Amino acid sequence: MLNFAARENDTHVEVRLIGALTLREVGDAWTYLAPLWSMEKVLIVNLAEVTDIDTMGFQILLYMKIRARGEGRKLHFVKHSTPVIAALDLFGSVAEFGDKIHLTPADRARFAFKYGATKTAGTGQVH
């Protein structure tokens, strides 16, 4: 099950995805997120509480990034959970997404990110 929490200010809307982002939840996720595209504010999607992600969940995130670039809108994924980081690593797509990822020491030891990404020394950020 996927739940949502949103907050808005003058410049952006931040949406928290809470739960699994898998085949069963992707439709609900897009139903919730699609109306936000009509807003001219920056869209921030907080992924800290995504507990599971499969290829469909990954594809909806990729679709959102590609669509945002094509429309010239700002979309940021933030606070990536370990399952999301694992999916980005599996598909070799950290650089494609272009968002800063803050890694815990355990995640740093677990994920190599040896393709198309650089680590900023001492910060735990991959970009």
**Any idea what the shape is?**
globular
Strand composition percent: 25-35%
The total count of helices amounts to 5
Compute the number of strand runs: 7
Reading the helices and strands in chain order gives: EEHEHEHHEHEE
Order of neighbouring strands in the sheet with most strands: 1-2-3-4
> How many structural domains?
1
CATH homologous superfamily placement = STAS domain
Question: How far apart are the termini?
Answer: 30 Å
Can you describe this structure?
The longest helix has 17 residues, at 55-71. The chain is globular, with a radius of gyration of 14 Å. Strand 3 (42-53), helix 2 (55-71) and strand 4 (75-78) form a beta-alpha-beta unit. Helix content is 37%, strand content 31%. It has helices at residues 23-33, 55-71, 82-90, 94-97, 105-110, and strands at 2-8, 12-21, 42-53, 75-78, 101-102, 119-120, 125-126. The chain has a single domain (2-122), classed as STAS domain (Transcription Regulator spoIIAA, 2-Layer Sandwich). Helix 1 (23-33) runs parallel beside helix 2 (55-71). The protein has a four-stranded mixed beta sheet with strand order 1-2-3-4, sandwiched between helices. A three-stranded antiparallel beta sheet has the order 5-7-6, with no helix packed on it. With 127 residues, the protein is an alpha/beta fold.
